């Protein structure tokens, strides 16, 4: 995973809100879209960027696509940020 791509994906407020929605579990694309006033195409673009950055995964179930937070990437980010603090004395 590249931190640059991850942080770039998280720099957008809409994408951060999508990540926030997914913290409670997987959601369908339609459910995600319903939380925003943007078009389906715009939200699809945001989902694509988050997926490319490894922050979310997608799974097709029947005619629906479900998105889920990739917590391993979040754990990597937290670990890196924590390491910046160094050892506590």
UniProtKB/TrEMBL annotation:
A matching Pfam family: HTH_5
Alphabetical UniProt keywords: DNA-binding, Transcription, Transcription regulation
Record-annotated HTH arsR-type domain positions: 1-89
Molecular function terms from GO: DNA binding; DNA-binding transcription factor activity
Transmembrane annotation, as ranges: none
UniProt-listed NCBIfam families: HTH_metalloreg, repress_SdpR
Designated name of the protein: HTH arsR-type domain-containing protein
């Amino acid at each position: 995973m590249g931190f640059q791509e991850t942080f770039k994906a998280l720099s957008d407020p809409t994408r951060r809100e999508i990540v926030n929605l997914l913290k409670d579990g997987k959601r369908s694309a339609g459910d995600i879209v319903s939380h925003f006033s943007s078009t389906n195409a715009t939200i699809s673009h945001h989902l694509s960027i988050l997926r490319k950055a490894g922050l979310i995964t997608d799974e097709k179930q029947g005619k629906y696509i479900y998105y889920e937070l990739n917590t391993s990437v979040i754990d990597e980010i937290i670990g890196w940020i924590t390491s910046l603090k160094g050892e506590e004395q």
